[in-house]
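Sequence only, no structure available. Ideas?
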Amino acid sequence: MDFDNALFLGALPILARAMLLNLQLAAAIIVLAVLAATVLTLVRAAKWAPVSAPLDLLISLVRGTPLLIQIFICYYALPAIGLNLSPIAAGILAISANSMIFLSEAMRGGLGSIEPGQVEAATALGLPASAIWLRVVLPQLFNRILPVLTAELTIVVKATALLSMITVVEVLRTAQQMSAATYRPFEHLLAAALVFLLANLAIGAAGRVLEARLAAGRA
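Reply:
I predicted one. Tokens follow.
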């Protein structure tokens, strides 16, 4: 079977428009994941015994199970306990929870690289713990994990393709629909892959620019 260039090129603008949903989902997911990971990191740093064991169990479950199963649980299993979520809401919940765990691990590592003397100096100046975290620790922490955040965002963008399995009409679902209508899956799936690749290349480039600007600001 010959490759149909016209079909491939014609699919690109349609899939590029569909990518807008993937990017919107990824933006919402990464914001929620960063906020939740920050809270989780603070809780773990406090080393509260009553929550340590449940958190360790949650982290093990998320890290040790496939993301697709987590998405299915949020969409198909949660209604059994009365929590009915739309496909988009279930997808955001599952992927953001998954991303939260990995970002929290990165934040824990970043905390270890911050000089303890800075916290000690801020404490000696009489700053409350909340101010120390907000003004001293977290700004440095986010600067240090920026490459991880950029990489995680590209992972999240790719993960949004899994939401096609719960009927979210994003890039992959759109490509599947076009393939079913034309019986030409190769051109459409290749076009979908190219759209994802270009989106993630753009995210990576933007992350490197931001890293360079922050580094220049610190110099």
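The mean pLDDT is 91.
Hope that gets you unstuck.
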